[in-house]
Write a structure and sequence with these properties.
By secondary structure, this protein is α/β, with parallel strands linked by helices. The chain is built from six helices and 15 strands. The strands form three sheets. A six-stranded mixed beta sheet has the order 5-4-3-2-1-15. A six-stranded mixed beta sheet has the order 6-7-8-10-13-14. The protein has a three-stranded antiparallel beta sheet with strand order 9-12-11. The longest helix has 21 residues.
Length: 303
């Protein structure tokens, strides 16, 4: 199967602008012969601690879903990506949709929001295994690629993993030598999380990422955040071979992929995390989860 993964430089919380870019890049992927196309996490909005995200969630059948279905039908392709969806119960979830020419084939809600993402959505509980007419897709989003529970729900059950991320860097704060050392480790983890996932689940991986800079507030701190997205868009074969990697900026990578299940080449560790996060990301994980849940109840959840 000829597959593509899209790298996006999203305009913060500007759904219409980002959908226009997605449409253009999907057309580029189709021109390159792609039959299956992966979009990043948060492809309608990007991600940062931006209050505007509270109003950027779309209904499950909204204009983003309509666009994906229209593109899938026109080009007879499969497309997957995640966006903020406000469900009929009034809650917002980070929902990965897999769409074909027949419509929405399935949906996976990211299990645990990461850090400041807690301010804008709640987690889900499904297994992310989606049957798409002869092929079984496993959906996973960003730090789900970091957790053993993701591997356990997909391992040996899927023919293709469709994944996406919006993984931000550690800021260049003082003392700079220490923060830059932590950032080098963070950047390596971001890349490893995507490239090693095939070995854990026993299937090829399409990983679509964001690129570019990020600027926003820091929850509960008198500091602004300034950094960049990293990890990179890539396509990985089931044996762990990296078939294609995106460079800087937005664009499309394409590769021919042998879909199907094989024996996983990596054992699942007996712990919660597949990869070590480091002290700073671990601390931020906890404090921003506490802040985010309070923020979500006050500003995002429908009363």
């Amino acid at each position: 199967m000829r597959c593509a993964a899209i790298q996006l430089e999203a305009v913060p919380a500007d759904v219409d602008a980002n959908l226009a870019t997605v449409e253009r890049l999907v057309e580029d992927a189709v021109t390159a012969g792609a039959q299956t196309i992966a979009l990043p996490e948060f492809f309608t909005t990007g991600v940062g601690f931006w209050p505007e995200l509270a109003d950027a969630a779309l209904p499950a059948d909204g204009k983003a879903t309509e666009l994906l279905i229209a593109l899938a039908r026109h080009h007879e392709v499969m497309i997957g990506g995640s966006l903020l969806i406000r469900d009929p119960d009034g809650n917002v979830r980070n929902a990965y949709l897999v769409v074909t020419s027949q419509g929405v084939a399935g949906r996976h809600d990211k299990d645990l929001p990461t850090m400041w993402e807690n301010a804008f959505y709640i987690g889900g509980h499904d297994d992310g295994v989606i049957d798409v007419g002869g092929i079984t897709v496993g959906a996973a989003v960003c730090w789900e690629l970091m957790r053993t529970q993701t591997v356990r729900r997909l391992r040996g059950r899927i023919d293709l993993a469709m994944t996406g991320s919006g993984w931000w860097s550690i800021p260049d704060w003082w003392p700079r030598a220490a923060f830059r050392r932590m950032e080098r480790r963070n950047a390596l983890t971001a890349r490893l999380a995507a490239s090693s996932f095939a070995g854990y689940v026993g299937a090829p991986v399409l990983h679509a990422a964001h690129a570019g800079t990020v600027r926003c507030r820091m929850p509960w701190l008198p500091l602004g955040y300034e950094g960049r997205f990293e990890g990179g868009t890539m396509i990985v074969a089931a044996d762990g071979t990296v078939l294609a990697v995106a460079g800087e900026g937005e664009g499309v990578v394409v590769a021919d992929v042998s879909t199907g299940r094989c024996a996983p080449s990596s054992d699942v560790p007996e712990r919660f995390w597949l990869h070590t996060r480091g002290a700073l990301p671990a601390a931020v994980w906890h404090y921003q989860r506490l802040h985010g849940r309070h923020y979500y109840r006050r500003h995002v959840a429908a009363s």
